[in-house]
Design brief:
Elements lengths: L4 E10 L2 E11 L4 E5 L6 H8 L7 E6 L2 E2 L5 H5 L2 E4 L11 H6 L14 H13 L15 H14 L4 E5 L7 H18 L2 E5 L3 H7 L2 E6 L2 E6 L1 H4 L2 H8 L3 E5 L6 E5 L2 H5 L1
Parallel strand pairs: 3-8, 3-9, 6-7, 7-8
Antiparallel strand pairs: 1-2, 1-4, 4-5, 9-10, 11-12
């Protein structure tokens, strides 16, 4: 199975500091790769570099067999899309308008929507449960509703690679579950290569095929969830005792930090 999108020995930083030191990560068709780690570990910076939204100081990003730096923005956007944490809060637009933005790489400037555009938009609305909002002004939506609309815009872009930076933020429990189910459906049924940053370790254990644990801008462990989500790895990286158990029947990992109030009781 060939990599679709990969970062090779990435060194990433800001004007006065380096925050990622020689990290490599590969996204493959039909595989959900979760980037996890404490705040400041470099997860989102790595993801943004894969999306060409953060400059690479050293190393390279490849798409298939090609170096991404040679691709135009439009060509890259036809193959890779990203749902970032910080999205604009547009005013004066409907949900349909925002989701239609996702078709931009496939359209000529000022051209009307084609049948293919409309089909992709309808599919994205359906997958994210936002069809009934299509005519609503986006400035009347809750944070969770707007998050789903931006996800729909990404899906309307109809790419083979989907990057998600904490996609369950601002969502209630139902839509957290539905978003993670959608991530699995995109990988399993459509062969989408997915890279996702998650803070919730239980969510990572549930949705990911491959986990990359970052600490201080370096890869501490990478592999299948059972190999990475161990008590030793997590306790070391997060700086507190963490118990990890496995359900004998389902094989599901359960992660439980040892909270002080629980120890007292």
């Amino acid at each position: 199975m060939h990599d679709v999108l990969a970062g090779h020995d990435l060194v990433l930083g800001y004007p006065r500091s380096t925050v990622v030191h020689g990290v490599s990560v590969s996204l493959r068709p039909g595989v959900v790769t979760a980037l996890i780690g404490p705040n400041g570990s470099g997860k989102s910076t790595v993801l943004r570099s894969l999306a060409r939204l953060h400059p690479v100081a050293s190393g390279r990003v490849s798409l298939g067999d090609d170096d991404c730096s040679w691709l135009t923005s439009r060509d890259f956007a036809r193959q890779v899309t990203m749902l970032s944490q910080s999205r604009p809060h547009p005013s004066g637009l409907t949900v349909h308008d925002v989701v239609a933005f996702g078709r931009h790489p496939h359209r000529r400037r000022f051209a009307a929507l084609t049948e293919a555009d409309r089909a992709s938009i309808a599919r994205a609305l359906d997958l994210t449960g936002t069809t009934d909002m299509v005519d609503r002004p986006v400035d009347q939506l809750s944070g969770g509703e707007l998050q789903r609309v931006w996800l729909a815009s990404c899906l309307a872009q109809d790419t083979g690679v989907l990057l998600l930076d904490e996609p369950t933020n601002h969502l209630d429990l139902r839509y957290q579950v539905e978003t993670l189910d959608l991530v699995r459906d995109l990988a399993d049924d459509h062969g989408t290569a997915i890279g996702v940053v998650l803070h919730d370790l239980d969510q990572a254990a549930t949705v990911a095929d491959h986990v990359v644990l970052l600490h201080d801008g370096r890869v501490r462990a990478a592999g299948q969830p059972a190999e990475v989500l161990t008590a030793d790895h997590l306790s070391e990286v997060y700086g507190l005792p963490i118990d990890v158990t496995r359900d004998a029947a389902t094989g599901r990992v359960r992660i439980e930090p040892r909270r002080r109030h629980l120890l007292r009781t």
